[in-house]
């Protein structure tokens, strides 16, 4: 998801002036808005849930292709990383085509990636079919799901985003069980084919994303005038009148021939009008599409690349560095835990209730509990955010020391609960940059998370190939995570320095 990337897209309006007109809309905070939550919930299940369950397929790919763990892990990390990295760039499609068509197209591309991967002959083929194709399609379908929830909710946006993103936890639990069953019964190739068919439900979720402005008449005011209804020409009317009055009964045959010629001429004129009208409509559609693409690109460019001033904010730069180091430590257990369980001869216990499912389920409760605690007036959101990060990094360090199923289950529960801090990320980002820069800043954070997810699992695999142990992989990732947390501590340090400076200046003036 993956994480709960809330509030990243509610600025993707077709026209910023429409924001004032959205508030009185009857579907805001109710009505069809809850269908948006349901649609986004299933998108999280189908995309983020399946990505967090890729550890099952990673084991199958290792047995099938006999490649190194570092090389094989690139398949999963490419899919996860590209889903996040392309997030800001999908805004161009949203501005041009709208959320509905972007999500539907993404569902088709995502499903195609799964189906093509079922026929992959090597790990490098999976890089293209699953890592790039399925990853890009999931990014196209995922971002509109978050955007539409933000558009349909004003007062209850946090609640709606929180409910929709719980689909990540449910999806991880369900997809892990589904992929394990399909791989056991039909083999991993048929499992990917079936999963590709299941992923087509993303198109249904996209079809539910009805734009709020659908009732607004955006037709051209001159549209009615452009509908040319051919009428008999003035010359033909006059000719008919003269023919009838001059020729009389003796010129009946000539009169009929003249009328036939006039009717033929009139038919030619009408066909010419129709051809001109069709050509006019085609040119009008092309011009409108061109204008729409230019406007979408302009909005996309100004929305993301126009935010260069964000990097003058030292706090935000530190937060970006944290995002670069943090997300890989959350992703690595999902990719490598199934093989760790196999190495520890705990497969039988893990089959009853997998460790990744424990992380997923507790992750749901972590989001809810940490969100409630952070909303308390006497508690700082930053303090909750930092404590959750410290708990997660300690869990990463302890995990290699556990060699029993019970011990691993406890650590996985801690990882799942502490990783619920992802629901606080929009609030923390808003504290750093303000509400007016939230969308652009969060898009940059998503890219940083995507780079982290892209490099983390292969790095852990390479460390295993060198040391023949996963222990050092978790230790090194934990150290990198600690570096990221040190960047987070820059903000409270700056606050303490500023407060002490103010006190010193006040004392000097006195």
What does this structure look like?
By secondary structure, this protein is an all-alpha fold. Helices cover 78% and strands 0% of the residues. It has helices at residues 19-22, 33-52, 54-65, 69-85, 87-97, 99-117, 123-152, 157-165, 167-199, 201-207, 223-226, 234-246, 252-304, 314-343, 347-352, 355-375, 381-398, 405-418, 425-433, 438-467, 471-488, 490-509. Helix 2 packs across helix 9 (167-199). The longest helix has 53 residues, at 252-304. The radius of gyration is 30 Å and the shape is globular. The model is unreliable at 1-23 and 214-251 (pLDDT under 50).
Computed over alpha carbons, the radius of gyration is 30 Å
- What is the H/E order? HHHHHHHHHHHHHHHHHHHHHH
- Helix content range of the residues, please? over 70%
Oligomer: single chain
> Can you tell me the residue ranges where pLDDT is under 50 for at least 5 consecutive residues?
1-23, 214-251
Structural class: mainly alpha
Strand segment tally: 0
Helix run count: 22
Average pLDDT works out at: 76
| Spatial gap, N to C terminus | 54 Å
Report the β-strand fraction as a percent range: under 5%
Report on the biggest sheet: none
Secondary structure elements and pairings:
Layout: H1 19-22, H2 33-52, H3 54-65, H4 69-85, H5 87-97, H6 99-117, H7 123-152, H8 157-165, H9 167-199, H10 201-207, H11 223-226, H12 234-246, H13 252-304, H14 314-343, H15 347-352, H16 355-375, H17 381-398, H18 405-418, H19 425-433, H20 438-467, H21 471-488, H22 490-509
